[in-house]
Write a structure and sequence with these properties.
The chain has four domains: 7-201, 2-enoyl-CoA Hydratase, Chain A, domain 1; 275-451, NAD(P)-binding Rossmann-like Domain (Rossmann fold, 3-Layer(aba) Sandwich), CATH 3.40.50; 459-671, N-(1-d-carboxylethyl)-l-norvaline Dehydrogenase, domain 2 (Orthogonal Bundle), CATH 1.10.1040; 690-785, no CATH class. 45% of the residues lie in helices and 13% in strands. Helix 5 (149-157) crosses helix 6 and helix 12 (283-294) packs across helix 13 (306-325). Strand 21 and strand 22 (735-741) form a beta hairpin. InterPro entries: 3-OHacyl-CoA_DH_CS, 3-OHacyl-CoA_DH_NAD-bd, 3HC_DH_C, 6-PGluconate_DH-like_C_sf, ClpP/crotonase-like_dom_sf, Enoyl-CoA_hyd/isom_CS, Enoyl-CoA_hydra/iso, NAD(P)-bd_dom_sf. It catalyses: a (3S)-3-hydroxyacyl-CoA = a (2E)-enoyl-CoA + H2O; a (3Z)-enoyl-CoA = a 4-saturated (2E)-enoyl-CoA; a (3E)-enoyl-CoA = a 4-saturated (2E)-enoyl-CoA; (3S)-3-hydroxybutanoyl-CoA = (3R)-3-hydroxybutanoyl-CoA.
Amino acid sequence: MGSKKGRTMVEVGADGVAVITIINPPVNSLSLDVLQSLKESYDEALQRDDVKAIVVAGANGKFSGGFDISAFGGIQQGAVQQPKSGYISVEVLTDTIEAARKPSVAAIDGLALGGGLEVAMVCHARISTPTAQLGLPELQLGLIPGFGGTQRLPRLVGLAKSLEMMLTSKPVKGEEALGLGLVDAVVSSHELVNTARRLERGLQISSTPLVCIDVIEEGIVNGPKPALYKEVKAFQGLLKSDTSKSLIHIFFAQRGTSKVPGITDRGLVPRKVKKVAILGGGLMGSGIATALLLSNYTVILKEVNEKFLEAGIGRVKANLGSRVKKGQMTQEKFDKTMCLLRGVLDFESFRDVDMVIEAVIENVSLKQQIFADLEKYCPPHCILASNTSTIDLNLIGKRTKSQDRIIGAHFFSPAHIMPLLEIVRTEHTSPQIIVDLLDVGKKIKKTPIVVGNCTGFAVNRMFFPYTQAGLFLVERGTDVYRIDRAITKFGMPMGPFRLADLVGFGVAIATGSQFIENFPERTYKSMLIPIMQEDKRAGESTRKGFYLYDNKRKASPDPELKMYIEKARSISGVAVDPKFVKLLEEDIVEMIFFPVVNEACRVFAEGIAVKASDIDIAAVMGMGFPPYRGGLMFWADSLGSKYIYSRLEEWSNLYGGFFKPCAFLAERAAKGAPLLKGPGQFYMFPRITPFLIYTLLSLVLALFTLQFSPENSYGLSRDGKNPRICSVSYPQFHRVVVYLLCPKTGLSVIYGYPPKYVFKVPIVHHWRWENQDYKTALIAVLRDGH
């Protein structure tokens, strides 16, 4: 047996990408040995659990010059056995590479001619260098493309261009191939493989519906028994897929949102809420009213005058009326539901309500006055909720004495359709109020997540970099519409600029100013939206924003947008950067979402979100993050904390603090640890301040004066009431921190009694260390009696 002619080599990186390299000098021609080795390498990569995706490349700067022509002579003379019919085009290329359940990318440098291009075309994506030559020159040898080229090239570049390329045997270079759609991106040689690695992260093999149809067809054609075997095989294959893992994670994460440590495990029974009052009949207020009415709650809608009240009731009627038109509600049910709604102009009807939801404009002084009035008119048991999306609840309730009843009930627009309810608690909010609102959320068919009180809470705070990152890219030369296309291709319902139009520029500016005020060191300040607003553009409501809108609200690009972008650049002092003009879609996705992941890490580290999986649900249900990617944190873990940290650090060094990775992400990256499964709920120690030193000394003195009873010592306080307890574990430092929130009664102490002085305390919440108002007491305990 003669020596083998050529081979392939497989290398699997830490990122889970297998790079298969074709090695057959001088042009990496595709001998039968190479093709057999390619199939074996693919089979190996597909079977390995640590391989997530595949990159195919050629050694020494050449992808492949095509099928080994020297084999033709042997085949023609009968000296070499011809491979069985369809072996290469069907078994190797179609059934193995093209049908692979893991995404593959061809990294094309130098040559991709004949069979080389045909191998590249069966990959799920292609990246090329600018000068690479791609073509099907078989007619020069009196042949036609034999590995599927006649079928795939027309589908990629169109019939006319494919005929030209095949009949003239004329290759195209990488730049032209990009314009034709033959390749997905063009990069320099030294960036080729790394870019291919990044590109594969954006690919999704969403073939589950097709597999289902295929199995059904098998039963129709060949009968149930073969179909059952095929069904089992397909099920087992899909069970191991990334899409299935992501969706199963979302399934369990969604069911876990109603379990809040220290709240839902107290045995509290939700009180019955029958009548709900809503202040404000705008889009949000009317949407909230609709959601409540659909679950048979009695609703009072309050407005400031008859005109606004009539408009608010009209919106509710329209919301319910659309259900009648769609056949989702009968006219009789519509009439009965509308009977549950009553419109008022004063607070007199609020004296027997069980819950109030404030949904007026985002104005602090107005909301403060409203809550002061609510305290006067509402009964003592009434839940006082605000639908604010950004304002600190402590500030809203500043003029009241009922801060234990104040809670955030943040719905997402449109409120009667969007499935998420963000329940925002302060350090004062009673656990009973939280349990009550969780119950209401379930009854109106919302998925509730309980979060802490801060600017933007969880969803809006972690997504505030979403539009800001888009503005950063635009000012440096990336096209607005390319950004939105890349983000929607990634799986979002709309990109940052289409979203800004939908929300409205007024809301975008008001919300953005809150984040600029509270997080100035990590916000990107662009004047583009204010400049457009000054010119009477407000988004979809005025039919002009980043897009133009027709009578049916259909969006189309606006050629005048360039003028505003140029003006914003001149104000910012930013010049167009050529590399941003041709930014890859994968880089666009990363530069948009990695700052979002970074802020989500802060939200988790500060205890604003109780569980990282809650962040995934918040992203999916609040912002439309694609569920088949598992949510924001799950998706981030698929890329790896090290990779995300390194990219953010690189951009931070180049462009400043907007991209600076947070301490939590840095710590996870240093350990190579995932974001979802980190030990403890908080990973940073507070600054040592005079306040903390004073608190610690006070606690030490208090401990000497208290008599502990180890058997039942889970809730001790000076006034005999169980205080709100917060605990944070530091397994990496072998210690536990416990602190208590008793702003009215002063010092309170909690004590758990496991062996060796290790405190075991149920977690209720984790408040931000920076806010001194939350810190009444702090106990630091070392492990094992130290």
